[in-house]
Amino acid sequence: MARKRFGQHFLHDPGVIARIVSTLAPAHDDRLVEIGPGQGALTTPLLERVKQLSVIEIDRDLVAELNRRAETQPGLEVIEGDALRLDYAELARARGGPLRLVGNLPYNISSPLLFALLGYSQTITDMHFMLQKEVVDRMTAPPGGRDYGRLSVGIAARARAEHLFDVGPGAFSPPPKVMSAVVRLTPRPPAFAIDDIDLFDRMVTAAFSQRRKTLRNALRAYLSADEIVACDIEPTLRPERLAASDFARLSNAAIARTER
C-alpha cells in the first residue's frame, strides 16, 4: 500500500516503464542508481540491462521486500535510507566511478532532492527522473514565460534540463491528481562564472520572492540601481526577464561591492 507521508505513487504502466528504460539506454557496466524503487516496477527491467543496480528506499516494508529479491538477484544492492541525506560521492567511490541516477521521485521532496543531487555534479553523469509535470515545466522554462522562476534559474546554473515526455495519472497506483513528466538532467559547469553559488541562490530567491517587484526594489539589499546598470541590466526589469547568466553578473557584482 502506498504511504501518503512518503508521497508514494507506484508506476505500473509497462509502456511508460519501457519508454523510460529505452530513453535511459543503460550500458551493461553503467553504475546505475535508482531512487525510490517502490515495488520494483522499474527495478526489474533495469536489472536485465546492467551488471549491478543500487536502489535507495526509505520505506522499511519495501526495503524488506527488496532485500528478499536481492537474495536471488546478486546484482541488486539495496540501500535503506533517505535519498536526501545520502553521500553520493562516497557511493560513487564504492561503485568505482560516476553514477547514473534514475527514479520516480516523491513529489513532496523533489525540489530539495534535485538541488542536493546537483551538489554532487562531479560524481553524477546524468539523471532521468519522473516528476510532477508542473515542476518539469518550471525546470525547463526559458526566460520571460509564466513558468520561469527561481527553480528555472537554479537548475540552469547547474545542469542542462530536457523535458522528455509526459505521463498521465493512470500510469500510477494510486493515480496522482496531476500530470507527470520525465526529465533528463545533465550536470555541467555553467558557461558563465558564478563566484559564490550560495550568494547567487540567495539573490535569485530575493528577486523572485515577489515577482511583481522590479530588480531595483527586489535586490536593494545587495545592489544599488546604478550597480545593476553597471552589469548591463536595466533595474526596472522584473526578474523573469533575466537569464541565469544575468543573475551571475549581479551576484558577482555584489561580491565586488563588499570587497571595496
Annotate the secondary structure layout.
Blueprint lengths: L9 E2 L2 H11 L7 E4 L7 H5 L5 E5 L2 H11 L5 E5 L7 H8 L3 E6 L5 H9 L5 E9 H7 L10 H7 L2 E9 L4 E2 L6 E8 L9 H12 L6 H4 L6 H5 L14 H16 L1
Parallel strand pairs: 2-3, 2-5, 3-4, 5-6
Antiparallel strand pairs: 1-8, 6-9, 7-9
Helix pairs in contact: 8-11
Care to describe what's here?
With 260 residues, this protein is of the alpha/beta class. The protein has two domains: 4-187, Rossmann fold, CATH 3.40.50.150; 197-259, Helicase, Ruva Protein, domain 3 (Orthogonal Bundle). It has helices spanning 14-24, 43-47, 60-70, 88-95, 110-118, 133-139, 150-156, 197-208, 215-218, 225-229, 244-259, and strands at residues 10-11, 32-35, 53-57, 76-80, 99-104, 124-132, 159-167, 172-173, 180-187. Strands 4-3-2-5-6-9-7 form a seven-stranded mixed beta sheet, sandwiched between helices. Strands 1-8 form a two-stranded antiparallel sheet. 37% of the residues are buried.
Output the helix-strand order. EHEHEHEHEHEHHEEEHHHH
**How much strand content do the residues show?**
15-25%
Give the structural class: alpha/beta
**Count of helix runs:** 11
Q: So what's the overall shape?
A: elongated
The radius of gyration over CA amounts to 20 Å
* Strand arrangement, major sheet: 4-3-2-5-6-9-7
The chain-level mean pLDDT equals 92
Architecture of the largest domain, CATH level 2? 3-Layer(aba) Sandwich
Query: How many domains, as an integer?
Result: 2
Distance between the termini: 59 Å
Largest sheet: 7 strands, mixed
Stated plainly, the CATH topology of the largest domain is called Rossmann fold
Binned, the helix content reads 25-40%
**Which consecutive residue ranges, at least 5 long each, have pLDDT under 50?**
1-7
> Could you name the CATH homologous superfamily of the largest domain?
Vaccinia Virus protein VP39
